[in-house]
Design brief:
CATH class of the largest domain: Mainly Alpha
Structural class: mainly alpha
Number of helices: 12
Oligomer: single chain
Order of helices and strands: HHHHHHHHHHHHEE
Number of domains: 2
Radius of gyration: 19 Å
Strand order of the largest sheet: 1-2
Strand content: under 5%
Helix content: 40-55%
CATH topology of the largest domain: Fic-like fold
Length: about 280
């Protein structure tokens, strides 16, 4: 994390008082910060190229073109290609004033983020998955089975689309949206890249409601966001563990409502199991 913050320090642009540059810098920080959910760190080349974009010297299309050319000759063993390209693509998507609420939009976001990186970019997985989670001491969330993904996505989107927000407070609205994002993340429709795609979709969806999103939250707490999604979708009744939206609501409260909730990953982790009771503490 220290290396990431050192590389992606765009604070100078936020302090200049130029709205366009500050907004671009904020979006870039979000895009780069989201790579942490998969343990990826961008290259110094990406940071310098991003600064040229923020300064207005090059367009986002030119950023993407430069990255393509860079990785045609650059040593790919440095493992920065995915972080660099996906960061640029997230920046592009979050800079666009377009959005449609549908499973197609969610799938298209995944396709745009990971095209040429994953062979299955924008494709619903046709196999079942499990993932060892640090926050669960190596256990996994139960994700949707491959043969139920499309039906599950269609159901969740249809239910959300028909939901009446008119009588909800702002706080209740945010909690409901957080639950929807949690639900579609739990489906895990793609082989990889689900959290980054869900985060981008969430930001676009919140903007559709007219909410101003604090991009610094995704920039600095993307790992917390993922762990909160895990805890929102994990139950182990015999050990007294139940799915909880508490942590995700804290995150969304800070993200949209300017709350100042403490966001600590350690608070979410089951540290050890008590042999007598079989409970995690």
């Amino acid at each position: 994390m220290k290396e990431l913050k050192k590389l992606s320090n765009f604070e100078e642009y936020k302090k200049l008082g130029e709205p366009d540059k500050a907004e671009k810098a904020s979006i870039w920080e979000t895009a780069i910060g989201l790579q942490q959910v998969d343990g990826l760190t961008p290259s110094s080349y990406l940071i310098e190229t991003a600064k040229k974009h923020i300064d207005g010297d090059i367009t986002i299309a030119e950023v993407k073109e430069r990255l393509e050319n860079y990785y045609k000759i650059h040593d790919k063993r440095t493992n920065t290609e995915e972080a660099d390209k996906v960061s640029a693509r997230i920046t592009e998507i979050l800079s666009e004033k377009t959005f449609i609420f549908s499973p197609v939009e969610f799938i298209t976001i995944h396709k745009r983020l990971f095209d040429g990186i994953y062979k299955f970019a924008g494709k619903i997985r046709d196999y079942n998955i499990s993932k060892d989670e640090w926050v669960l001491n190596g256990d996994t969330v139960f994700y949707a089975s491959a043969d139920s993904i499309k039906a599950a996505l269609d159901y969740d989107f249809a239910t959300e689309k028909s939901f009446d927000y008119s009588k909800l407070s702002k706080e209740a609205t945010i909690k409901h949206i957080a639950k929807f994002i949690s639900d579609i993340w739990q489906i895990h429709p793609f082989g990889e890249g689900n959290t980054r795609a869900a985060a981008v979709f969430a930001i676009k969806y919140l903007r559709r409601f007219g909410f101003s999103v604090n991009n610094d939250l995704f920039a600095n707490n993307s790992w917390y966001f993922r762990n909160a999604l895990v805890r929102a979708n994990y139950t182990l009744v015999d050990s007294g563990i139940h799915a909880t939206m508490e942590y995700l609501n804290r995150f969304f409260g800070n993200l949209v409502l300017n709350e100042n909730n403490t966001l600590k990953n350690r608070e979410m982790q089951f540290k050890k199991m008590i042999p007598v009771t079989g409970q995690f503490v």
